[in-house]
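Tutorial, part two.
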Amino acid sequence: MQRMFSGSSWGIVQHFRKGPGGKVMDYFSSDHHFKHKNIIKYAGRPHTHIDAMHSDMISKHNAIVGPEDTWHCVGDFAFASIAEQKVFLSSLNGKKKILYLGNHDRTPRAMREIGFDEVYDTPVDWEYGGYKFRISHYPFGPEDHEGITPRYMKRRPPVEGCDWLICGHVHEKWKILRNMINVGVDVWDFYPRSIEQIIETIKRLGVITDAKLQSNLHCY
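Running the prediction step on this input gives:
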């Protein structure tokens, strides 16, 4: 049993995690931008056209996420009508689909209509595997894209009270920056990452010292 809360409201969320071998897992990815043709150019995606991008993202998602798994979409799902987004979402595996709103997503009500089981518009804290994670589409402020003035500062999650932030928003700019892990599809070859893979990445980094927190960890 894991403890999950949004803001000051606590709740208990039961997940039946049993590890590898076809067993139920939690997976994370973000910033798919379905139906956004220009994202191929903006994020330097390898696809020659938008249909190839859609096919690649859907097939790689379904190769990893099973029909009984939980998928956490950490924002910016699609640039499309509600009807079109329903089609994209229904094509992706996952028994439970959770959305953490990004700056390009519709309202929580609209995203639930599209088919997400849970929609959060504030940062969510989650304790798992001995780590205190915070989940938000946005990185901690003021870090964002190097050389670009940060935006959406009122939506940035607080730094205090968590060990690691699971975020998106920055696309191909970085995978890991200090204690932030970007689960955007652009930096993971369009595959989702399991919570166990995220923890393994943290363990490979070793103990994050104060000195390391002052430097950028562009790795993996």
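The longest helix spans residues 50-64. In part three we will examine how such features are distributed along the chain.
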